Amino acid sequence: MGAVDAIWVSIAAACATLAAIHAHVVLNRPSATAHLAFAVLSASVAVIGLLELDMLLAESPAEFGRRLWWYQWPVWTGVVALVFFVWRHLRAGRRWLGWTVIVLRTLTVVANALSDPNVNYREITELVPATMFGDSVVVAVGRPGLWLPLAHLSLLALIAFVADATLTLWRERRRDSSLLLAACLLMFVVTATGVVVVSFWGLVRIPPLVTLLFVPIVLAMGAELSRELVRAAAVSAELVIKDGELRESRRRLELAADAANAGLWGIERATGSLWATPRAIHMLGLEPSGPHRIEDVLQAVHQDDRDRMRAALGEANQDGTLHTLEYRVPGPDGSVRWFVYSGSASDSRAGGFDGITGVSLDITQRRKSEADALLYRSEMERLSRLATLNELSGALAHEINQPLATIMSNAEAAQGMLERSRPDLDELRAMLHDIVIADERAGAVIQRMRALLGRRGLDPMVIECAALLRGVLSFMRTELISRSVQVHLDVPDSALKVEVDRVAMEQVLINLLSNACEAMADLEPEERRIVLSACEEQGRVRIRVEDHGRGLPVPPEQVFQSFYTTKREGLGLGLAISRSIVQSHGGRLIARNRDGGGAGFIIDLPSMRPESGR
Amino acid sequence: MITVHVVDDEPELRRALARVLESGGYRVRACASADEFLDGLQETMSGCVLLDVAMPGIDGLALQEKLRVVAPHLPIVFLTGRGDIAMSVRAMKSGAVDFLTKPVRRADLLRAVRTAVERAEQSRLEHERIESARAKATRLTPREREVMQHVLAGRLNKIIADRLGTAEGTVKVHRARLMEKLGLDSVPDLVRFAELAGISPAADRDDE
User: Fold this and answer.
1) Could you tell me if B26 and B5 are in contact, meaning their C-beta atoms sit under 8 angstroms apart?
2) What's A260-362's CATH class?
């Protein structure tokens, strides 16, 4: 095998390899039309190369003519592919010029199909031996074909097309590999055309060398390809690392989530399908083997929470924020577990998962503790009320016995009056009226006692401050009298309203008044004075209980500690519970020593005055 | 007609108690507070005080203390709504006639008031007797008083005369004079009088 064989076969093989590589790219990515064009171009040149080799080694004019006839087909595909390659890969070249090239070349190939032996020659007269790279080859001699100008015109159009594209790239200052490639292409089409024109018009006897001229393009594309390969390898290596990191970070995340007893799950926006860690699947009580959808999740949660969850997820998809969502999941055994889900919606603009992702935690135990604490608190409140009532029991007995005495005396006086022959009916009416009033009074006391004794939740309602304070004073009346304590009530504005649970707030006030009485037990009776006042300050209602007693320890805050007491039989819970009651009304209970001596307690509550806007 | 002073701060109960007491034949003077009661108090007033323990201002027990000075002859019946034993003991020790708990039955109330009034009447009579005895005793001369004390000690005229260093006849005259002054007939009458008037028998002498 000589040098010509070696060179032509090598080039053909290189072209075929390039074609195969780019065809592979196209197979994986059908949209890569530039690669398709280059694959076709390379394949065409590979075929051209083999046919050229055949021609160079032809033994008869007929054989040369037939091979040249075949030669036109890969030239056609090559030219068409080249036009598309310029368009797609270099993003240059005028449309009409490109199409002119394609049309002219197509006419050429049609003319070739109709010609004998081919479009180039009307007749090949002889094969002249020549020497190339030390090998002996043949060069055809004969009469040029009728349609040969058409072929040459198409080549000139091709030169114009490529030159225009190169110029465009130059002008657009895209002086990178594209420009190099364009220059190579231009050189290729110019020289190839030159060689073909010159040899066919018999000016110089040179064999067809198109293949040889394609070598710079092979080199340029090869260089680009290798650069891309290197880049691809780097990216791929990076991807492997990234993939590993991703896997690791995901494993860590799941580990952390599992350790925190948390389940991670999300809903993809477009498809509504569920992504979840195994624990989250378990938490939702779903089948371990997927796939699951948003409907399965909604089906899994408690029916009373379904609409809320659907709305929350829908909202999150719209505005991107997911408010913390608490929901229940009924278990197969009828038990219900509580979960809290918090997360956010991400969109594909940032890349990655498009939809809602978040974490859910089992808060059943917390819920239960909260309920227990609430129960415990209400039980403590009740105990403290019992203690308060116990302290007041003597006074309360009086408070009830007083009206009972009125009733009894009136009833018996009436009985006596009825014995008379002519009873005084007006007086009897007056007696019955007094009986009714006394009965109502006793009833009210008993009702209030029952309210204080009962186990109950808070039931806030808007009431007048004055009514609240007067009610407490009437309830405490006897206690205050028997302790010789005078209360000065100062409620300037009857429109002053608060939203409170009446019984609970009465408990607080009774407690404070009772403590104030206790604090003044050592004083002379005329010095035992309490000021009970209510006023509005900065949109808040402040109820003050101020005494002239021995004052509070320093700092006054310590009186709110549980089990703090100065009373011999006190539980030490009254003030702690009073504070918690006031706080549960959105208020504060403040203790301080008054400047003139004595203790002052302030119940600070939100105002319910109609014009204050609430 | 006997007056009952009802002191209670509650008008309804005051009215009701008044009705019961009036039906029992008493006159009622109703007062809303200890101060009102004390303001209207006159020395000539008699009867009985029906007093509520728990009142604003001066309470029942404090009023009792005041009355022991101002009007010791007025009997007090307490009324209370709380059955407090310590308080009732204190009240009774301070001379309360009764300590009633509310609600009180008509019969109990009237009985208590009647007892109080009767007891007051008795004590008034006793008081009057003592006063008159003391008044009579002031009419005696010192010598007559001396003789009387020896008579009360059960001594015979002769021994009295011996003690006083005088004649037995003189003692007889003194004795007759004092019996006449006191309007008494016998020695037992004289002993009872001496108890009322607070005159004690003469002491024995050591040398006898």
Assistant:
1) no
2) alpha beta
